[in-house]
Structures are given as structure tokens and as C-alpha cells.
Amino acid sequence: MAKKLIGVDLGGTTIKFAILTENGEIQQKWSLRTNILDDGSHIVPDIIDSINHHLDLYKMTRDQFIGIGMGTPGTIDREKGTVIGAYNLNWKTTQNVKEQIEQGTGMQFALDNDANVAALGERWKGAGNEGDDVAFMTLGTGVGGGLISNGKLIHGVVGAGGEVGHMIVKPDGYLCTCGNHGCLEQYASATGIVHIAQDKAEEYEGNSRLKAMIDNGDEITAKIVFDLAKENDYLANTVVDEVCFYLGLASANLSNALNPEYLVIGGGVSAAGEFLLKRVKQNFEKFAFPTVRTSTQLKLAELGNDAGVIGAASLARQFVNED
Ligand SMILES: [Zn+2]
């Protein structure tokens, strides 16, 4: 009988779950609100209860499953299966996630960080086309990334590999939460785009709906900036040009180092679609090394919110041959 996988995508507001076939087809999906109260101490017990409850609900047994994989924020020790410093979960001290979940569910468990897991998902069932060399950037409230080289995620010596959001694209630029200046995250995240818009609006004196909204004190989002740019708002277009310049520069630098088959751009900001991708590509082509320019392909992510659970489930495939 074909065995199944469980994928868990743990985030600061929701925990997403899915049961998948060994080939990565989602069969069941559900989600829970993340209860971060009491130092996040309810999170792991809630995950265990929810998995056990749903297996009962679907009349499934433990031996139908290969194991559970999970993506989580924070710093991860993959060997020990622990997480520390996941501040949006209120996990300030070390959490023995693997030990508790294996005990509570009777299944084998593996974890990695959320951006890495999304990269695995896109590589397996999305834009990465099962390639051995895939770079992934996610543009959301922050900028995250996952780099797959020779079929393996790059973790680095202490797990900080793939932190593409902190690639410096403008020395002495905007101050980043990491303490440095000019990180990509400050220019290509949803909040970074709004920051650029506000700064440009201050200097701009021409006609612009975006400028009128900002001067009016209306709430601006990255989506509004892109929508106005598509409607030929001049100021909005200069903002998008700047964002795409930094994204193209970062994509070229990353690709010059790794020469991936695909560089996949996902996250909420990537909903701007081809409009965004086309301008990022123009800058990428300007900065990329000639052989990289012709061999690395920039693409939009294809799985949306499912990338996390699919990639998480793929972590459990390592247990296939262990029985
Ligand atoms: Zn930074």
C-alpha cells in the first residue's frame, strides 16, 4: 500500500497541515490558529492533538505514514530537532519539538526553517521542476530564501545559509532589523516597498495618485503601489523600478555564485506577477555573468500557500528507507 506523508507549516498566525501521497499530491488540508500565549507552550501540544484528531477523523493509522515534516520560523538544530529564537511564536528558549511530536504521534519527524521548506516545495511540485539547482526568494513582510545546490539545501555551518534577505544591495542604505544597512529585505519586502514609496513621494512634485494618497495619510500597501504602477502612475512606476533594480541585482549576484537552473520568486509581493518579473529580468540580464544569463531562468512561484506544507512533507521522505 502506498504510504503517505504529513506536512506542517508553522507560522505566527496559523498552522497549516496537509496529508500527501508519497508523490506530493495533497489529499487533505486543514489549519489551526497559532496560540502563542504562555511562551508558545501550547503550540506543540496543539499540533500533536490536531494530527491525532484528524487521523481518527479520516480513519487512518500510523503505519500508513512515512512520517511528518515541518517548517518553522526560528533557528533550527536539525539533528536534535530543536527550535530557538522564533519570536513570532514566543519561543525564546529551546523547544524540543522533534522529541515531543514523535512521542505524541508515534511517527518520525523532521524539521527545517520555513523559507527552506517553501523552497523544497517549489522545487518538488512547483516552478523548480524537480531541478537539482534551484534558488528561491520569498517576498513577504520580510524577504526569505532557500538555496538548493546539487539536490541539497544549503544550510551553512550554523544554519544561516540562504538568508538572501540580508544580502546587501545598497551599502549605507536603509537600516535593517539585523543591524546592518542596505539589506534586500529593506527594499523588496512589502514594508520595504512602502518605505521607498514614502521617501520618493516626499521628493516628487508632479502629478501622481500615489503621491496624493501618501500626502493624504492614506494607508499604502505594496499591492497599491503595483496596481497604480500598472495604471501608469509615474511615481508608482519609479518605486517599482527601484524595487526591481534591487531584486535584479540580488538575483544576478545569487545566480553568479550558484548558477541555479531556476531562480524562483514567491511570497505575497510576487502576486504582482509578470509585471514584476519582466522588470526584475531586465535588471538581472544587465548584472548576470554571460553564461549565467543564458542558463539561469527567473520564474514566478507556482504553489502559493501550499509550498510550505508540500516542502515540509518532503522532509519526511528521508524516512522511506529506514524501516
Ligand atoms: Zn538585514
Automatic annotation (TrEMBL):
Q: Which Pfam families match?
A: ROK (PF00480)
- Which PANTHER family does the entry link to? BIFUNCTIONAL UDP-N-ACETYLGLUCOSAMINE 2-EPIMERASE_N-ACETYLMANNOSAMINE KINASE, ROK (REPRESSOR, ORF, KINASE) FAMILY
Q: Which GO terms describe its biological process?
A: glycolytic process
* Family (UniProt): Belongs to the ROK (NagC/XylR) family.
Membrane in keyword set: no
Q: What class of enzyme is it?
A: transferase
Organism the protein comes from: Limosilactobacillus albertensis
Return the protein name: Glucokinase
* Record key words, sorted: ATP-binding, Kinase, Nucleotide-binding, Transferase
Cite the EC number.
2.7.1.2
Keyword ATP-binding attributed = yes
GO cellular component terms listed in the entry, alphabetical order: cytoplasm
